[in-house]
Design a protein that fits this description.
Distance between the termini: 107 Å
Structural class: alpha+beta
Number of strands: 14
Radius of gyration: 39 Å
Mean pLDDT: 82
Helix content: 10-25%
CATH superfamily of the largest domain: DnaJ domain
CATH topology of the largest domain: Helix Hairpins
CATH architecture of the largest domain: Orthogonal Bundle
Length: 314
């Protein structure tokens, strides 16, 4: 009967974390799947696992420290009988946990699934020996192929995040919710909307292509608009209707407005990823009518206006 502390190479006062760390290291080195041609390693693995099984159980560890049970978990009293709580013989080939050298580890003892999950990438198998994943695991059935789509989204829909109806390869349609900050090149994944397969359907990836607009342009999260105004509106000022990505609004034109002046409409732009919305920037363009005889005669007699290029030295 081996001393479990010596078997794991830890001191008698070692913490639970130190005991688990020591066992993980030894189990990884001695695991039968890594030592198929070395029966001694498999036997050593059983001994190491038995030692961890005892020391990871607080009650059994305390009983061992008091000398009530030996390193195999058997009572030290000659009248105790039984196998205690360590390794025990298998009966009829049934039971749970990992089996090796005719002994069964696990059962109602310490749950070592977290140990093997960390070592071999999967939880401990029950009833049949070996492991559900890790060394020698069977690959899951493959999923169906992924499918890629390109979706043309109108400029205004992208700015207002209007849902887009998508027709899938199987003929079904879904309403796709656009994310804040959407732009050309944005990719959206639809889980399980790809081709069917033995392991389930693959995924679908939708690449967004925001379409250009007749008079709106995008500037980051802002929307830009060139808005023509009449000479009268520029000189005298007033209110005019201006389009936005949602609906027209009334825009106040200051008196004496010149071409190129930009007004800002708050919150009329694209939805931002971090929340909120950009603005709409309206650049005013004074429209001078052609072939207006009255306007031409007025300006011929008008001597005002000064020299707007004076500051340029010309």
């Amino acid at each position: 009967m081996a001393d479990p502390y010596q078997t794991l190479g830890v001191a008698k006062g070692a913490s639970e974390a130190d005991i688990k760390k020591a066992y993980r290291k030894l189990a990884k080195e001695l695991h039968p799947d890594r030592n198929k041609d070395n029966p001694k390693a498999s036997e050593r693995f059983s001994i190491v696992t038995n030692a961890y099984d005892l020391l990871s159980d607080k009650d059994k560890r305390a009983r061992f420290d008091r000398g009530e049970i030996d390193g195999d978990g058997n009572p030290t009293s000659p009248f105790g009988g039984g196998y205690g709580g360590g390794a025990r013989p298998r009966s009829g080939g049934q039971g749970g946990g990992f089996s090796s050298q005719g002994y069964e580890f696990g059962g109602d003892n310490a749950d070592m699934s977290d140990i093997f999950e960390g070592l071999f990438g999967g939880r401990q198998a029950r009833g049949g020996g070996g492991f559900a994943s890790g060394f020698g695991r069977q690959a899951p059935p493959p999923k169906g192929a992924n499918v890629a789509y390109r979706l043309a989204v109108p400029f205004v829909d992208a700015a207002t995040l209007s849902p887009q109806r998508v027709t899938l390869a199987d003929g079904k349609t879904i309403d796709l919710k656009l994310p804040a900050g959407v732009e050309s090149g944005t990719q959206m994944r639809m889980t399980g909307k790809g081709e069917p397969g033995p392991g389930g359907a693959g995924d679908a990836t939708v690449t967004i292509d925001v379409q250009p607009h007749r008079y709106f342009t995008r500037d980051g999260d802002d929307v830009r608009l060139d808005l023509p105004i009449t000479l009268t509106e520029a000189v005298l000022g007033g209110s005019v209707r201006a389009p936005t990505v949602e609906k027209p609004v009334m825009l106040t034109i200051p008196k004496g407005t010149t071409s190129g002046k930009t007004l800002r409409l708050k919150g009329k732009g694209f939805h931002k990823k971090a929340g909120g919305r950009g603005d709409q920037l309206v650049t005013l363009l004074v429209d001078v009518p052609a072939n207006d005889a009255a306007l031409a005669q007025f300006l011929a007699d008008w001597t005002g206006g000064g020299n707007p290029r004076e500051a340029m030295g010309v």
